[in-house]
Amino acid sequence: MKKVLVFLADGFEEIEALSVVDVLRRASLKCDLCSIKDEFVRGTHNIIIQSDCIIDNIDQDEYDAIVLPGGLPGADNLLDKRVKDIAIKFNDEGKIVAAICAAPQTLEQFGILDDKKCTSYPGFIKDREKVNYLEDQIVVVDKNIITSRGPATALEFAFKILEELGYKDKAEEIKKDMLVDFYLDHSK
Q1: Which residue has the higher pLDDT, 97 or 135?
Q2: CB 146 within 8 A of CB 157
Q3: Is 53 an annotated catalytic residue?
């Protein structure tokens, strides 16, 4: 079974973090909410979440992917040496490094997005000369890097992470169970 680590810092965007956890746990994957500071983390909309673990106490080698949710100041608070070291290590090893909304900017500051295709919340990639920025995409995958636009794209981001971990059929099954296809067919 694959294991995923979702980093939480004060000011994280709740829907972006919890959508990923929800979808991955529906697929029976181990998905841990990992705080970079305290056991309880306050989201950008003042929702307090209890983390499963704290960054200083994890064995990062147990995980197959990391996820950085956006939100402000959450994405800025993820600019932490421990998060950076793990993100760079995962990228170097070809493990999945996923970021949504403002968090691709965090990956950009870590140097992980250089020469990569990516997307983000509008205006959150500062040096577009170093990346291939795709503003018309919901989710962008470039090898092991997955980026997405923001809260409205959180479910699609979660499904793409699940697919890239090798669970495409399970992603399709969960989409059907969650009525995603029904919603998409009736929202036009």
Answers
A1: 97
A2: yes
A3: no
